[in-house]
Amino acid sequence: MANMIESAREKINEILNAAYLKAAEKGELPQGAELKGTVEIPKDTANGDYAANHAMTGAKAMHMAPRKIAEALSANAELEGSWFSSVEVAGPGFINFRLSDKWYEDVMAAINAEGMNYGRIDEGKGKKVMVEFVSANPTGPMHMGNARGGVLGDALASILDRAGYDVWREFYVNDAGNQIEKFATSIDVRYRQLILGEDAVEFPEDGYHGDDIKELAKMFYDKHGDDYLDRSVEERHAEMARFGLDRNIPKMQSDLRRYGIEYDQWFFESELHESGYVKETVDLLTEKGFTFEKDGALWLHTSKILGDKLLAAGKKPEDIEKLELKDDVLRRANGFYTYFAADIAYHRNKLEKRGFDKAINVWGADHHGHVARLKGALDALGLDGEHRLDIVLMQLVKLTRNGEIVRMSKRTGKAISLTDLLDEIPVDAARYFFNSRPESPVEFDLELAIRQDSENPVYYVQYAHARICTMLAALAEEGHKLPEFKDVNIALLNTEPERELIKQLAALPEEIRLSSRDYDPSRINKYVTELASRFHKFYSACRIKDAEEGVLEARLALAECTRKVIEVSLSIIGVTAPEKM
Known about the structure:
This protein has 24 helices and 15 strands. It has helices at residues 4-25, 54-57, 59-62, 66-75, 101-114, 144-162, 178-196, 211-224, 233-258, 269-274, 277-287, 302-312, 317-322, 339-353, 368-380, 385-388, 418-424, 427-434, 446-450, 457-477, 496-506, 508-518, 522-541, 549-572; strands at 39-40, 50-52, 84-90, 94-99, 128-132, 166-173, 265-268, 291-294, 297-300, 328-331, 358-364, 389-394, 397-401, 404-405, 442-445. The longest helix has 26 residues, at 233-258. It is flat, with a radius of gyration of 30 Å. The relative contact order is 0.10. The model has no long low-confidence stretch (mean pLDDT 94).
């Protein structure tokens, strides 16, 4: 698929290398030198669309002034039939290339040919990548951190898919361990309080205090009455945990589906325990000599694993000592495996058993201390956790309304959950606003998210798409139908607003490459906002309806290409492209 920006850079390198060979043959430049350099798009394109610094990087090897090298290269550059109309030397030795009509035509031809596949590239070469995101504890409603993590994970998965990776989306359900026991205990106490009275049973201080627990206890009571009052604690807790999870997990699935998120798999932690995979993983670490026993518990020698890695990376022992690295319990004295042990087993399952080339997790920033420990444990298992596990850490979300921080839902009077948020604002707005740089805290303005004006970025972009649809429909009614692309003369699109718009259309594949490289889906927001801005400028500056026939057809084709690329861009971040607004 076409990445016309990257391709233009490659073509410039080819032209300059051919020019060097030609100049060297003529004796204008010394032979045997290796010509290398970077090709950039300058901020100010008044002197050219691309600038190459090959003359400056080659000056030392050639023992010549960069300007002289640049002049020789530009004089010998063959542009005939290329994407460039001119080449000239600027400043101390920059070589500036100006794009030709052919490049602009080829950009629009690629969009026309590829349609909704425009922007697909082969950066990933089919490597298997798992993106695990949200993975909220199934013990209560999803909160704002989950809302943000859902969008970042889903949009990142879409970008990696477009970049040529074989992508798998997964939700890890923590349905085992301490928090599930606490969940069951909380339901159990509320259940017994319903029957015996609130004063008769004390609620544990570290229990789950939310109204959702009371609702689950009431539902359990409505189904079973007081049948469970005299059962053993183990039986009550096992049944109540299952009862609560059987209601909470489908609710999470439906909330995320409403939010536009579908997973390839919901993976249950309990399966790792029941299959013996956690035990097997811990036994492997023991066989490899990375565990020790203390106080009846089995520990992972995390401090040694991480310390050895830091030593190998050149850190001084005294500096490592200052870090006060700690070891981790894998199996408690009571025989139960810790959450960390299960987490190691789960990631071994991803990389070894299921054969993903890379596992990517979207986590809250409060998990940052867990990253090195988990990577170290995978390194100890020989799974190269350092390179095969990547963690995207995201910062907190702050909701505001009219400049005031909002913590409670107007509808329920409780802390705002994902459900409450989606009851108040459109899914498109939520997804657009939350898809911002992961490492930056988000301030989500609830009033701005529902405004229907250009201050609201999602409205601004969607309006550009709807405006194009409305314009194309109106002109078609007047007899100006969208022409066949082969019949359009793209060379007539020669004004600055038209050319700037086509350049922005060309940038989507490059933005996908950079977004996938940096795990930063927010680049697509910025990209499509700028695309909408350039379209609005073009629409204001370039008359379509009253233009001469050839120009009118070319501008219709450009508008249609823009519409397609806005639709593609919005689909990547899970936002709709309405035809009317």
